[in-house]
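Think of the structure tokens as a kind of shorthand, similar to the way a musician reads notation: each symbol stands for something richer, in this case the local conformation of the backbone. In the example below we present two proteins back to back. Begin with the first one, reading the sequence and then the tokens, and try to describe in your own words what changes along the chain.
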Amino acid sequence: MKTLSFSLLRGFVIVLLVLQSPAFAQNNPAELKINLSEFLMNNAFLLTVVLIFLSALVTAVLSARSRDRCLKDFRDYPVIIELEKERKLVWGNLHLYSNGLELSYLKPHKDLEGHIETSFVLYKDEWPGMIALFRCADELDEKTLKRRRIAIRRTYQPSVFRKSLRSIKNLFNTLRDAVNKSLGVFLGQVKKAMPSSKVLSTQDSAIKNIGESFVEYTSYAYDAILENMIGKKVVVEVPRQNTLLEYPGILKEYSGNFIEILSVHSPLKFFLPVPPKGHTIHFRHLEVLVEDKTLRLQNKGKNRVFLIGLLGEGLEQKWGYPLAPNESFEKIFDEPVSPDVKIEIQVPGDVDIILPRSLARIRHRGEVETFDWKTFFGLK
């Protein structure tokens, strides 16, 4: 913000210098056209600076305000991110920026090397390594649960007002190329009207940049099939380890990178690492601890966690144990467990999911319910 404020102040100074130049000091309206032409001819460099400043200012403001349309809906919620690298799991409150995201841990985390960490940062160029982002209803407090219920209600069978607003956004997207071409035609006509002016011939790229930045900010990656399914129940397919996972839910939004599905009532499977001896890891409300040759898991949450078993190279154990709230589970091994082994668990459904478009495909329409006129006119 300090950099932006300094740039804005610098722009105002330049504009004031322009307004106080001799060409604008004339008070005779009859000579205004002549003075303006002389000013354009004699202050080409100054106009260059002003136009470049305006172009940079518009681009900077729009870029700073730009957020992914899907990730923006999960902002300030507790979420779980599953990364492709080693099936790593990270969880915390989501903070979204124009160039990445940050998860703030619910409490400070002590790394295996002994230092304290309070958040995890994932930059935008690392988003392709994201398998999925989950928002679980059982982790939300009453306030955030209410926000989620409102979002689901407004998404499913949206009102005529929300449909109209989306149509306007689609119009911007459709006219993106037309607006860019219109800027070129406009500059060409102005050049013909003032063939002797060198100012316009040097500033057409700066003017185009302003228009293109605005159009790019208001548009998005339009998809005709997905657009027709917004607010409808769908079934999403995601390939995972030589199988296909299906997530039935409501299509809330899509962007160039992601698809957002609400109210998915399917249990989720996660793979937790086995911590080194004497260390404890936490996943949501599940605590995992290794002492000597004993693996201990304790459920400190309000819902049951299903312990499927251990899975890894050269080792596979099936437990099939439902771990109730405030209950512990212990497993004793003859030898230390390899760090490559993962603990496979299953948690209850009722989640909202953001999936990468590079992996996820909407394969089916889901259940169709009776049309509600009160919802359509925004009365519910």
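Once you have a description of the first chain, move to the second and do the same.
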Amino acid sequence: MRFLPVRDDAVLIELDDLESTLALFDSLSSDPIPGTGELIPGARTLLVFYRPSAVTPAAIARAARSRDLGSRVAGEGNLVEIPVRYDGEDLAEVAALLGVTAAEVVAMHTGQDYAVGFTGFAPGFAYLTGGHPALNVPRRTSPRTRIPAGSVALAGTFSGVYPRESPGGWQLIGTTESLMWDLGRERAALMLPGDRVRFVDVSGRTGSTADAATGVTASPATGSTTAAMPRPRTRSRSSTRACSRYCRTSAGPGTPAWACPAPARSTRCRCARPTGWSATPPAPPGWNSPSAASACAHMANRCSPSPAHRCR
């Protein structure tokens, strides 16, 4: 192990590999060093926050070096079930690379629970480890410039779900409607380090899209479950531009919609347009304040040339 100071209340521990990192993370999570706080694992690092008044970096180093990293301790994290339609563009190619059928790839992916090793790349993206050992495929030789949100993918021994539309080079094997990142939830990220993840095949099921859009998080202590919120409706391109016009006007030329001032960013606007209607994600607390309501009305007036709109 190598110990590097980050600031006066955090130290970064470098290890040899991912297995050692996760073993130390599990050990320090199940039996914390007195005075330490949040732990953030990476592929070969573990960031440890601590209270300087309670423990020193030297004491953390001594305690960490004494831990047995030969085997992992069962984590206390939640069990997250993710329903997947195995319709990915690369499913057949992955099967060919492994010398098996597509059905066998699905069986391997759903047959064993994963563990969240670490997070990164984008908010809500979790690197999942511990699946079937045969699921070891290379990244694509030519990455895609646009991968849809909710794409379930493989790369090396990792599995993951793209939380938002983005470039990427992982092999796509399926899609899910579960939201990986949602600021409207108490826990924005659906999967956090220490959680266990189980993929459930819903490819052949019939029923409402809401049934297939539920990601379930179960606490091992209580057995309670919390369903992930369904994916928001797709915005039409023209109505989205119209709805964000107020934001760009008030914030300055060329300002993107996400840089909108807080009152306008905290509203939801539905536009009556031939191309359909749009809605922003669920608003945070305080969205219905007088200033937000005024911004919402102003935005709605710019959204629609007629009174056929509703803003809330």
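Compare your description with these statements about the second chain. The mean pLDDT is 73.
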